[in-house]
Specification:
This protein is α+β, with helices and mostly antiparallel strands. It has a single domain, classed as Up-down Bundle (Outer membrane efflux proteins (OEP)), CATH 1.20.1600. 60% of the residues lie in helices and 11% in strands. It is built from 9 helices and 6 strands, in the order H-H-H-E-E-E-E-H-H-H-H-E-E-H-H. The strands form 2 sheets. Strands 1-4-5-6 form a 4-stranded antiparallel β-sheet. Strands 2-3 form a two-stranded antiparallel ribbon. A hairpin with a 5-residue loop joins strand 2 and strand 3. The longest helix is centred in the C-terminal third of the chain and has 68 residues. The two termini are 70 Å apart. 35% of the residues are buried.
């Protein structure tokens, strides 16, 4: 054997180490505007704004605790975390493919050659006679030399997939946190509506009592009494519906927090969380923060590496194998020099004809890459749309809240004046009923608009990737 041959093989492997077929990855371009269309105010620095647990900006300790529970126990997040761990394990497997595989073995076999000849220690015969017991102990080495970068592209693809899985985990955490925050805001809005209805029902009962007394005194008609009774019953029905909606939302919040519905009971608090300032953000920053965008971009990188894997199939594979050990007819003298056996040599293999299978695989890899690029660009566009929608909603609701607040104040003043006129006998109870209904509707609309503004703010933070801009 030429003593320099193993060194030559290793040198060839080292020289080929820098070669990897297939295109090197470049992030696909995604068109983003310099500023949001719906950003109606300049971005103002806010160094004190939270950057990690973004929900703390709403100043509600109950929400903070629920978010912590969801991050720890939500089953969707746990599933995404397990998938991420599996992706990391796949990276380890792809990295291991670049290294030699070493094995050891020890066997004892009963053998007999042709015409009843026993097998000797060197693979020959032990003479005419019965079968012989052959013992073997040794080690093997197998190493595929990555001449064309197929294994390195596989590792590149696995790493990109693991990074995409990390993005999926972050996106799942963000989605659960945002959904929980929006459900919580809705629940507190229902609490505020419930308190408003409770106050209204108390007022309606007092009005009904006054109307009955006036009817008994002969200064009010029976229709005034029935009108007051109808108004009270309608408000009581609305209160029952609000309680039903609240129970459903409480169940949904429990599931998001990783609990069974019977394990969570939220005390009624008729106060909405505080509304933080609208954060300023540029589209380029949005692309850096959104975990779903990062995941989509990493999938493009994985698809790009798959093209290299497919193209490497056109080239031959070179493997180096080695084996050594001892083989003989008895364990007592197995490890003596005459029983030593070994083998060493390269193996070159190439596919000559496959009926177009490799071409089809290469075409499929390119098509998958194009699909991943389109998906990435679509995620970017959807993210921009989500931010624009949230900004437009916040702007519109800010104006709407001012108008609704004025309407609520005017309705309260009208109701107060109408009740005084009714006690003075200058108007009928129908005027009171109309004023009461108008006031209740205006107050309910105000709570609804305030709730929608908070939910739109949460939607904007979700569109930005969760963290307000500094």
């Amino acid at each position: 054997m030429n003593p320099y041959r193993p060194s030559m093989i290793l040198l060839l492997a080292m020289l080929a180490g820098g070669c990897a077929v297939g295109p090197d990855y470049r992030r696909p371009a995604a068109e983003t505007p310099a500023a949001f269309k719906e950003a109606w105010q300049a971005a103002a620095p806010a160094d004190a704004a939270p950057r990690g647990p973004w929900w703390k900006a709403y100043g509600d300790p109950v929400l903070d605790q629920l978010e912590e529970d969801a991050g720890r126990a939500n089953q969707t997040v746990r599933q995404a975390e397990a998938q991420y761990r599996a992706a990391l394990a796949a990276v380890g497997g792809a990295r291991a493919a670049l290294l030699p595989v070493v094995g050891v073995s020890a066997t004892t076999t009963r053998e007999q050659g042709a015409s009843g000849q026993g097998v000797g220690s060197q693979g020959g015969t032990a003479g005419i006679g019965g079968p012989a017991t052959v013992d073997h102990a040794g080690a093997t080495l197998a190493w595929e030399l990555d001449l064309w970068g197929r294994l390195r592209r596989g590792l590149e693809s696995s790493r990109s997939s693991a990074q995409a899985s990390a993005g999926d985990l972050a996106a799942a955490q963000l989605s659960v946190a945002a959904t929980l925050a929006q459900d919580y805001v809705q629940l507190r809005a229902l609490d505020a509506q419930g308190e408003l209805l409770a106050t209204t029902i108390t007022a309606y009962r007092r009005s009904l009592e006054i109307t009955r007394n006036r009817y008994t005194a002969g200064v009010a008609a029976s229709t005034d009494v029935t009108q007051a009774e109808s108004q009270l019953a309608s408000a009581e029905g609305q209160a029952a519906d609000v309680m039903l909606q609240r129970a459903v939302l409480e169940h949904a919040i429990a599931i998001l927090a990783g609990k069974a519905p019977e394990q969570l009971s939220l005390a009624s608090v008729a106060r909405l969380p505080s509304l933080p300032p609208v954060p300023g953000v540029m589209p380029a920053t949005l692309l850096e923060r959104r975990p779903d965008i990062a995941a989509a971009e990493r999938r493009v990188a994985a698809a790009n590496a798959a093209i290299g894997i497919a193209r490497a199939a056109y080239f031959p594979t070179l493997s180096l194998s080695a084996a050594g050990g001892y083989q003989g007819l008895g364990w007592h003298d197995l490890f003596e020099a005459p029983n030593r056996v070994w083998s060493l040599g390269p193996s070159l293999a190439a596919t000559v004809f496959d009926g177009g299978a490799r071409g089809a695989q290469s075409d499929a890899a390119i098509a998958n890459y194009d699909a991943a690029v389109a998906a990435y660009r679509q995620v970017v566009l959807t993210a921009l749309q989500g931010a624009e929608d949230a900004l437009a909603t916040l702007r519109g609701l800010a104006d709407e809240e001012l108008a609704v607040h004025r309407a609520a104040v005017a309705a309260r003043d009208t109701l107060r004046a109408t009740e005084n006129q009714y006690r003075a006998g200058t108007v009928s109870y129908l005027n009171v009923a109309i004023a009461q209904g108008t006031s209740l509707s205006a107050e309910t609309n105000l709570i609804t608009v305030q709730s929608r503004r908070l939910q739109a703010h949460i939607g904007l933070l979700k569109a930005m990737g969760g963290a307000p801009s500094p």
